[in-house]
Design a protein that fits this description.
Shape: extended
Strand order of the largest sheet: 2-3-1-4
Oligomer: single chain
Distance between the termini: 55 Å
Order of helices and strands: EHEEHEHHH
CATH topology: Alpha-Beta Plaits
Helix content: 40-55%
Length: about 140
């Protein structure tokens, strides 16, 4: 595949009012000479990297805290990923988990916009040797 071509997944957060159909129609109307395919979680974009970037920037304006994207490793229609050839798609469980977690990312972005500071994570400490021995003894026969 041409190194200038990029395939990118666009996810719509579950809390968004946008639909894959609406985003696909919007992308077609931009006229950025890229391919777009609707999916159950959003759309797939494919085309020259600069055109995909311009398109993504415009799509994100539709609902900034609820539109997310990531690069897809395989181009559209690639037989290694096509459900027609493999049945259920490998990796779908991961996509579904990521999609469900988008609500958490959205809440984080809203907090940042409000100027809230994230909590300082607690510094992890090593477990004392005696406590580790007790744990081992509890689970060992």
């Amino acid at each position: 595949m041409d190194s200038n071509i990029e395939t990118r997944l666009i996810f719509i957060a579950p809390t968004s009012d946008l639909t894959p159909d609406r985003i696909a129609r919007f992308v077609h109307n931009l006229g950025n000479e890229i391919s777009v395919k609707e999916t159950c979680y959003g759309v797939v974009l494919e085309g020259p990297k600069d055109a995909v970037k311009r398109t993504l920037d415009e799509v994100r304006k539709m609902d900034p805290n609820r539109i997310y994207s990531k690069i897809r490793a395989f181009p559209m229609g690639d037989l290694r990923r096509c459900r027609a050839h493999h049945g259920s798609r490998p990796g779908f469980a991961q996509l579904e988990k990521e999609w469900k977690d988008l609500c958490l990312v959205e809440q984080g972005l809203i907090c940042v916009e409000k100027g809230e500071k994230p909590p300082t994570p607690k510094k992890r400490q090593k477990i004392p040797v005696n406590d580790l021995r007790k744990l081992i003894d509890e689970v060992s026969p």
